[in-house]
Amino acid sequence: MATADPSRPGFQLPLLLLAGFRTLIDDLHAELARQGHPELRPLHGFVLQAVGVDGTTATELGQRLGISKQAAGKTVDRLVAIGYLERVDDPRDARRRLVRMTPAGIDGLGRSAEIFDQLRTRWAETLGPHRVDALEDDLRTMAAANWFRLDVPGWFGG
């Protein structure tokens, strides 16, 4: 069955949602680069959030991100190399190694939250605060109850 309004075909909705997401993420990373974090990439934000304040193991990280332990390890290797994560002995279990954020990782994640607030404000200035509020409310209505998920990298990767 075709869309009731041929000027608004159904396939455009997910593409526009993705374009809005991409615009926000691209703007975030441009500002992060200006603020001293040019190495951070969109995937890295998911990884830093999944590592969290207490750290995690590579296996747990892969599960949280919906990717293999090997893929998680490769991403951790990259973030260790550029100074955002470190590997340390687990104080509760000497057989395990934890991955945890360095001060640079904590700073990058904190700046991301601040920049997202600024970007939301910019959208509200352009569209109007009530329209942005309504957009968020509508997306919460349509999104799954567990809409805040860190497994997007695995989901996109198939």
TrEMBL record:
InterPro entries found in the cross-reference section: HTH_MarR-typ, MarR/SlyA-like, WH-like_DNA-bd_sf, WH_DNA-bd_sf
Residues annotated as domain HTH marR-type: 33-132
SMART domains: HTH_MARR (SM00347)
Protein known as: MarR family winged helix-turn-helix transcriptional regulator
Species name: Micromonospora vulcania
